[in-house]
Structure prediction request, 200 residues.
Amino acid sequence: MNLLDLGEYFDPAVFDYIILPALIFFARMVDMTLGTIRIIFVARSMKTIAPIVGFFESLIWLFAISQIIMNLSNLATYIAFAAGFAAGNYVGIYLESKLAVGLLSIRAVTTNDASDLISYLREHNFGVTSVSALGVTGRVRLIISVIKRKDLDEYIQIVKKFNPKAFISIEDVRSVQEGFFPTSQQKRESQFFKTFTVRK
Prediction:
């Protein structure tokens, strides 16, 4: 597509220094947003969606770079291209955090008695493995869970509720085999029955 044909309908200065740079900025931002998301998908072994995202990423990049080549003397297009690159990185990371796809491995180390914390996590349908360990200050309890990214905030809030000074480390997980990962429906049903349980 040659955007210069559209310039016939606008004032040349407005088109060259406002409309064309804005289109290049937007295209580059979308391109980099898709690129950032694609890299994250590849790192998490999402083999189906990553190539699809990559296709549209490369297509939009070709459109943006072709406009640069056809307007080599226009400094505004260079600035728009670079600004779109920077904005795309930010938007891509932001969108990925909202999508919250993939799994995380969480290790929480607590010096306090963790029995209530472990029971509470299991009641809220989190898979938990706990082991006794030796830390710098003495005996500690190591709690290990693999959870969905979208459940991270809830998990941390639960841990901090029982032990505000717990040490927590978080790592991405490429893949898992077996394990317990409740669906959203199971978690809602669990919370529903807990709400209406009559305590003796």
